[in-house]
Amino acid sequence: MFIAAKYSRGVWKSTLIFWAVIVGTLVYLFLFPMSPLPPNDLSLVATFWQGLQPSFVFDSGIFISFLICYLALSVNDLGSIQAVDELLKPEEYCRNQSFLCEMSALDIDFVKHQGIGLYEWLNPNTPNAVSTLGTFSLDYFKNASSYILKHRKWIESHIDNYSPYAFDGSGDLLNIGMKVKSGLWYPFCFHRQGFYCLIFSQVDFRRTWREKELEFIASVAQGIMP
User: Fold this and answer.
1) 190 touches 107 (CB < 8 A)
2) Domain of residue 208, CATH code
3) Mind giving me the DSSP string for 48-97?
4) Kind plus residue range of the DSSP H or E element containing 214
5) In angstroms, what is the C-alpha Rg of the chain?
6) Does residue 53 form part of some domain?
7) Distance between CA atoms of 130 and 177, rounded to whole angstroms?
8) How many domains does the chain have?
9) Which end of the chain has the least Cβ crowding within 10 Å, N or C?
């Protein structure tokens, strides 16, 4: 299941437990086709098996209840998948002149001490934009990632006004090495090992993130939270 969870995508990943139950049941029946019930003459377990008459009885009420619960969970998962799909296809709003910037999504994992790239969109009209899709050590962004994990707040940094948490070398890396004029780290979906983060990078000019833009980002992040 761990391997399947890692490589499965979309609906297959959302229904993984359901398929695991089916496959597990079939494997069990294959390995133990005539598995008898424990004898009821053992004093330690006799009370548990008294009056038990194993037989299949179809109860429509239980079946419908289970089906409705399963459909409700499926709809919830599919809704999250669709929200992520809308998030990870930012062309609709990134091409808008008011929100024209590079974007990426990262999984910040403090257990692995890594930032894991999940998605990236580069503006085709910005040829000097540098790809950041990949896996990197959190040593590059130690102060910023630790601050976000502790305070659960977003961080912005500019080429002419570094964030207080970008003086660990991350500011020079982003604003000089990667030529990012303005950057915004927006965390969401905090989990036991860290959090997910949306990275917005403005390469071609220095910008100030407007309140409406931050509200839009917050609504998108809120929409994909479990």
Assistant:
1) no
2) 3.30.450.40
3) HHTT--------HHHHHHHHHHHHHHHHHHHHHHHHHHHHT-THHHHSSG
4) helix 211-223
5) 25
6) no
7) 9
8) 1
9) C
What are residue 94's phi and psi, to 5 degrees? -75, -25
Residues 59-108 have pLDDT tens digits of 777 777 777 777 777 766 666 665 555 555 544 444 444 456 788 888 99
Put residue 169 in one of left, alpha, beta given phi > 0 → left and psi -120 to 50 → alpha.
left
Dig out the tokens for 71 from the structure: 């459909």
d(CA 182, CA 206): 5
Q: Which two tokens stand for residue 118?
A: 């999940």
Q: Is residue 61 part of a domain?
A: no
DSSP H or E stretch at residue 107: strand 102-109
The range of the structural domain enclosing residue 158 comes to 98-223
Alpha carbon distance 121, 5 (integer Å): 25
